[in-house]
Amino acid sequence: MSLLHDKHNRWYCIFIAVLVILLVLIGITVIDTQAVVTKEMFLTHDNAIATSLLEEGVSKEVIATALMNTEADATGNKVLAEIGLSNSTDIENLSYVSDVKNTIMTSMFVMLFLWTLFLILGTMLFLYWRERLYRKSENIIKDYIEGNYNVHLPQSNEGNIYQLLASVDQLATMLQAKNDTEQKTKEFLKNTISDISHQLKTPLSALMMYQEIIENEPDNPETVKEFSLKIGTALKRIEQLIQSMLKITRIDAGSIFFEKSNYSISNILNHAISELTTRANNEKKEIVIDGDLEQMLYCDIEWTSEAIGNIVKNALDHTDAGGKITISWERTPAMIRIYITDNGHGIDQGDIHHIFKRFYRSKNTSDSQGIGLGLPLAKVIVEEQGGILSVQSERLQGTTFTLSFLTES
Question: What percent of the chain has pLDDT over 90?
Fold first, then answer.
């Protein structure tokens, strides 16, 4: 029975069973004792009859025959009725029978009183355990309601009540996780808004300054042209910032579904660097592709191209004219690794552990093109597809980013 799985219920049932056994044993003892007492009473009564008959001169043989006789007839009843003894005679007038009755009633009363007393005490103890459990659980649930999840409800593998408490405790754990998620979401939103505000402050201030300069010198075409170009650059920076923030926030929020399929790496690279080759040519830099162009990669082509493009942009930002960015790859039994290597400025060892942080800008760089979101976005994209993005670099010795993807199972 499921009720017996509860520790308290089990002990209470054992207690009742013990009481019943004690009641039976005590009843047997009372019956045996009462039988002995009754025998003594009847022997005493027979003794009195025998003594009286002997005093009247009745022979022993007749007395013995009378006392041992078990047959009754109407003559005997008539004699007993003449001396006032019949079925209608009050028991209280039969002293030996009255004594037997009183002894039995006293014994039964004492037995039932003790049994009832133990039953009441055991039941009160059981109810006390239950009440203490309920009170403790009530106080803990109140803590849950107030947002305190540092305590836990009493736990046990047995009993319906403990299964109920375990379910409530599980619900509290889920609520705690939900609250923690909400707090992290709020903190993330707060930090994101703060980051965007901070990042927009500089280009917006520049826009206001450029606008004032153009407004103050409307008749100077060179000035208007120069600062119009700067306004375009600032607006492009703002657009890039907002687009990057939207992408990374959507991924963090889990609203992006990666549609993965098999694509050739050459197709992925065409998506990733088609617009960057023009920039590389203009800056007298070279992008080299080295690998099996038919090699397939299981991924989301759009987002993976975004990640590769961001890494190549970072390489272009930190490579001087005449520099070279090489994209190569290799396949192992378990993984496909894409290497993006440049011979640029490299990364200082003090910065290498921070480059994937959002808006991080090294103190050692004079670059003003990046906004500090390209590499973090690339890392999130790769990791959300089950891959790993790592980096190796030394100052003035170039940098290699490695994108590792599991092969399709």
Answer: 22
